[in-house]
Amino acid sequence: MSTAVILAGGKSSRMGRDKLRLQFGGDTLLRAAVSRFSQCFDKVYVSVGDAEKYPEVEAERVVDLYPGCGPISGLHAALLKTKDEGVFMAAADLPFSSPEAALKIMELCGDASAAMLVDDMGRFEPTFGYYKKELLPEAERLIKEGRYKLMLLFDNFELRKISRDELGELWSERLLDNINYPEDYERILREEIK
């Protein structure tokens, strides 16, 4: 079994409106992400702070037990809920995120506790990565300590860093493009038209 969790719990404060309801490719960002990942994953959850939000999206909800803590709270709730070895977490505001690339990252994880892409500058995108269930107690501990950065999980656990070369033909320059500001959305719409 493979489980994906689409993160949809953010406040969109930098956008000034709910960015996950923005139109992209004939649908909203959130519905498009759920649809993409549903084609390749056995189970797709939507991670939210409020179970009633996004009633138009047909996917089971994972509701934050610790609201307002960011993506680590969504990861915590998803790891609690799943019976799988782990979950692939993908932010809904990554319009070009690829479920095929996600499955490859899971495959490359090996014995590590998590796996994610690292770019040529050594930067990670923790909201597009695979996390195993063994991280659950550490996630809960960090949340209770008020330490919400996902990368803190790897002070005590191994992270498998995956390069663009390892991803091969599944790599794309746009794979990790995200939408935070109105100008990001406008730029991505212009690129979509090209």
In short:
The protein has 194 residues and is of the alpha/beta class. The chain has helices at 29-38, 71-81, 99-108, 136-144, 164-167, 182-193, and strands at residues 3-7, 23-24, 27-28, 43-48, 60-63, 86-91, 114-118, 124-132, 159-162. The model has no long low-confidence stretch (mean pLDDT 90).
Distance between the termini: 37 Å
Helix content, binned percent: 25-40%
Largest sheet: 7 strands, mixed
Quaternary structure of the protein: single chain
Report the top-level CATH class. Answer: Alpha Beta
Categorize the overall geometry: globular
| Total individual domains | 1
Q: CATH homologous superfamily? A: Spore Coat Polysaccharide Biosynthesis Protein SpsA, Chain A
The succession of helices and strands, N to C, reads: EEEHEEHEHEEHEHH
CATH topology grouping:
Spore Coat Polysaccharide Biosynthesis Protein SpsA, Chain A
Number of DSSP E strands: 9
Helices, by number, come to 6
Strand order of the largest sheet: 5-4-1-6-8-7-9
Q: Estimate what percentage of residues fall within beta strands.
A: 15-25%
Cα-based radius of gyration, to the nearest Å: 16 Å
* Structural class by sheet pairing and helices: alpha/beta
Mean pLDDT: 90
Low-confidence stretches: none
Assign the CATH architecture: Alpha-Beta Complex
